[in-house]
Amino acid sequence: MRFLIQKFGGTSLISQELRDHVASRIISAVDEGYLPVVVVSAIGRAGEPYATDTLLNFALSVNRDIPVREMDILMSCGEMISGVIMVNTIQRLGRKAVFLTGAQAGIITDESHTDARILRLIQVI
Fold first, then answer.
1. 69-75 long-range CB contacts below 8 Å, 24 or more apart?
2. Domain ranges within the chain, ordered by starting residue
3. 51-79 pLDDT, tens per residue?
């Protein structure tokens, strides 16, 4: 099986039209015999509701001293939203897809919050 890593930034996910285009690129990779591993950024840029900077600014408005563990969780929220939206987009187009967090995908890191290093990959598929 041939894997293909595809990365899509937040501005490529900002509208349904753009998400459909991204989904078609993912589906094309499958049709060409690849197993795509898709990485998506949080939708949009600062000011957009699910952008990482927007979420971060919201948290900082509550308390400027965010523990690094919680900072990691907060910074992943926008990406998780994007991943779920992309899975729904692909499924709407009649294909199967599943969202996985890094840990669910078998990526094991050290405990250096906000600057983790990959220690190993475990097979989960």
1. 69/113, 71/113, 71/114, 72/113, 72/114, 72/116, 75/114
2. 2-121
3. 999 999 999 999 999 999 999 999 899 99
What pTM was estimated for this model as a whole? 0.88
The CATH number, out of the four listed (3.90.600.10, 3.40.1160.10, 3.90.120.10, 3.40.50.300), of the domain defined by the range 2-121: 3.40.1160.10
- Measuring CA to CA, which residue among 121, 100, 95 is closest to residue 29? 95
H or E element: which one contains 40?
strand 34-40
Query: What does the CA dihedral 80, 86, 91, 96 come to, rounded to 10 degrees?
Result: -70
Q: Is 94 left (phi over 0), alpha (psi -120 to 50) or beta?
A: left
Residue 96 — pLDDT band, cuts 50, 70, 90? Answer: very high
Provide φ and ψ at 111, rounded to 5°. -100, 25
CA–centroid distance for 57 within its chain: 20
CA distances from 78 to 10, 71, 105 (A): 9, 12, 18
